[in-house]
Amino acid sequence: MSSGDRVFVARLAGIEVFDPSGDQLGKVRDAVTMLRADRQPPRVIGLVVEVAQRHRIFVPMGRVTRIEVDQVVLASGTINMKRFDRRTNEVLVLADLLDRTVTLRDGQQRVTVVDAGMETNRSRDWVISRLAVRTQTARLARRRGQLSQVEWNEVAGLTLSEPHEQSESQGTDAVLAVLSDLRAADVAAALTDMTPKRRLEIATALDDERLADVLQEMSEDDQVELVRQLADERAADVLEAMDDDDAADLLGDLPAADQQRLLGLMEPEEAEPVRRLMTYADYTAGGLMTSEPLIMLPDATVAEALARIRNPELSPAVAAQVYVVRPPQGTPTGRFLGTAHVQRLLREPPSSLVSGLCEKDTGSLRPDSTIDEVTRHLATYNLVAVPVVDEHERLLGAVSVDDVLDHLLPEGWRDDRAEAHG
Fold first, then answer.
1. CA 49, CA 60: separation in Å to the nearest integer?
2. Of 279, 314, 336, which residue constitutes the final position of a domain?
3. Total structural domains within the chain
4. I need a labelling partner for 182 at 20 to 30 A (CA). Which of 137, 168, 393, 394 fits?
5. Cα(152)–Cα(40) distance, integer angstroms
6. 392 and 322 in one domain?
7. What is the sign, positive or negative, of the torsion defined by CA atoms of 145, 146, 150, 154?
8. CATH of the domain at 245
9. Which pLDDT tens digits describe the chain residue by residue (422 residues)?
10. Looking at residue 145, what DSSP letter applies?
11. Whole-angstrom Cα Rg for the chain
């Protein structure tokens, strides 16, 4: 078979491995994969090859050029002969996956994994795309169950977010290792698929800033459920790490007693802007805005503004412009002077003052402006964010296009996204 065909791992066991010169290197004993937190097919990262009696090495799949019925052929290059030592988040397909009892998502039928089929995807990575499973019967001793093939994502119990019967808890460290490289939105989708117990274990292990980023990507119901499971002190710390508008939205979904208790545990300087945002009605500019846009005083230079913009923790919408105000700099600020867009800043000498570059011709909004007014304003002037000022022209905050999208998309859109990942 060619490398583009599906290969069932159990049939690979024992076949010979050859180098490009035709010399036998050893025999395949297993394949190594890394389970994922979502339902996507896991990548096969390499083969375990026995090169001498009881001496097994790891051969990356990138070295495999061809898999035939009776042999595996490797590309040229040096083979690392170091003994294979499985890492924490690695799984052996034959040793760990086969004979595992899992559940079919359609109908909750119990089945046993008897083989795993791997094939190359569009990125030319080998992934486990299908499983051969046998149904369980009440009389297994006398009659074997029916054998069939299913897609990887049709089975529950083989992701890091779903503990399985043979091992009630895939180590939290292993789950965290997989989640560490994912975007916050993808981690949120993975948490949605987890059991409540596992979700709380992972949330507890994440640091405050990371959990805050993830919470901001979860649905309102999931946010509330998770925050109410946390200890009050931890919940307050995470709320402090969240964007103030997201923290206000989350607190607004909690009972009044919970709101006041958590706000009381937050640092006063962190709680104050959140309290202020909670006074505005939902679906208004005040209710949508962040009170922490990039704010500069008139004597700030372009170099100083660009240094603020380079902060990797800022979202693209927030980093698209700076707002120039008279003192005081914290919201509500002194008089709002205008906006300096990043493209304009990049074209000016670093020593120039931002006050000489700011524009005000695109206008601003009042905090009671409706979401329809906010949307039309952004579209009319092709903006990614718009300032919000009070009747005294003091800057209160800014509404970005991502804030508006969160409220314009249909209810449950985050859940639909999580399903798409599955």
1. 10
2. 279
3. 4
4. 168
5. 8
6. yes
7. negative
8. 1.25.60.10
9. 444 478 999 889 889 999 888 899 999 999 999 888 778 899 999 999 999 877 999 999 999 999 998 899 999 878 889 999 888 778 899 888 888 888 888 767 888 899 999 999 988 899 999 999 998 665 444 456 788 999 998 998 787 665 554 444 445 665 676 677 778 887 887 787 677 887 898 899 999 999 999 999 998 899 999 999 999 999 999 999 999 999 999 999 999 999 999 999 999 999 999 999 999 998 999 999 999 999 999 999 999 999 999 998 888 889 999 999 999 999 999 999 999 999 999 999 999 999 999 998 889 999 999 999 999 999 999 999 999 999 999 999 999 998 898 778 776 655 554 444 44
10. P
11. 28
Q: Which residue has the tokens 């990797």?
A: 312
| Residue appearing with tokens 């913009």 | 309
Q: Do 145 and 49 share a domain, yes or no?
A: no
Q: Which residue has the tokens 């003091």?
A: 394
Statement to judge: residues 40 and 106 lie in one domain: no
Query: CA 191 to CA 193: how far, in whole Å?
Result: 5
- 253 backbone dihedrals φ, ψ, rounded to 5°: -90, -5
Distances (CA, A) of 407 to 280, 288, 316, 342, 364: 15, 9, 18, 26, 20
42 DSSP 8-state letter:
P
Q: Quick one: 59 and 110 in the same domain? A: no
Q: Please tell me whether residues 337 and 354 are part of one structural domain.
A: yes
CA distance 49 to 16: 9
Residue 420 lies in a domain: no
Type and span of the H or E element at 302: helix 302-309
Judge whether 165 lies within some domain. Answer: no
Tokens in use for 356?
């000489």
CA distances from 233 to 137, 221, 266 (A): 50, 21, 8
Residue 165 corresponds to which tokens in the numbers above? 């019967």
Does residue 238 fall inside a structural domain?
A: yes
In a domain, 287, yes or no: no
Q: Where are the beta strands (DSSP E) in 230-365?
A: 295-296, 321-325, 336-341
**DSSP per residue, 153-201:** GGEES-STTS-BTTBS---HHHHHHHHTTS-HHHHHHHHHHS-HHHHHH
How crowded is residue 225: how many other Cβ atoms within 10 Å of its Cβ? 14
What is the domain range of residue 138? 95-156
As a whole number of angstroms, the distance between CA 315 and CA 307 comes to: 15
Residues 302 and 392 in one domain: yes
